[in-house]
Amino acid sequence: MDIVFIRQLQIDTVIGVYEWEKTITQRLEIDLELATDIRQAAAQDDIRLTLDYAVIATRVQQLICAEPIELIETVAEKIATMLLEQFATHAVRVRVCKPTAVANAQTVGVQISRGNWA
Ligand SMILES: Nc1nc2c(c(=O)[nH]1)N=C([C@H](O)[C@@H](O)CO)CN2
């Protein structure tokens, strides 16, 4: 199985549980992995036969910035659902980090795996 991935996609958005967080933007850093098969795209050197990471990044940005969200868990699930519905992949991993959330921690976050990785 092959993977198209994005590392440390940085998105500034309204995210958080507390009232003070609803009036500011904070940075999320997102890692994505999408299961795929790159062989046809490579053989024909054709972007139309693979998962376009630029398109994926734009779609994720639009999804997460569309409305305020409280939990990074919600962010992860929304992204995973959208990727499985809108792109030619049967399994995804999504990691969402909120690097400014906890003092003295480099970052905090959640990671989920959805779909069939078998
Ligand atoms: N598991 C989670 N814990 C916490 C979250 C979250 O989204 N998932 N969010 C917060 C606050 O918004 C925090 O980031 C403010 O600094 C606390 N814990």
UniProtKB/TrEMBL annotation:
Gene3D superfamilies: 3.30.1130.10. It comes from the Bacteria. It comes from Rheinheimera riviphila. One of its GO terms (molecular function) is isomerase activity. Signal peptide: none annotated. One of its GO terms (biological process) is tetrahydrofolate biosynthetic process. Pathway: Cofactor biosynthesis; tetrahydrofolate biosynthesis; 2-amino-4-hydroxy-6-hydroxymethyl-7,8-dihydropteridine diphosphate from 7,8-dihydroneopterin triphosphate: step 3/4. Its EC number is 4.1.2.25. The gene is folB. It catalyses: 7,8-dihydroneopterin = 7,8-dihydromonapterin; 7,8-dihydroneopterin = 6-hydroxymethyl-7,8-dihydropterin + glycolaldehyde. InterPro entries: Dihydroneopterin_aldolase, FolB_dom, GTP-CH-I_C/QueF. The lineage of its organism: Bacteria, Pseudomonadati, Pseudomonadota, Gammaproteobacteria, Chromatiales. This is 7,8-dihydroneopterin aldolase.
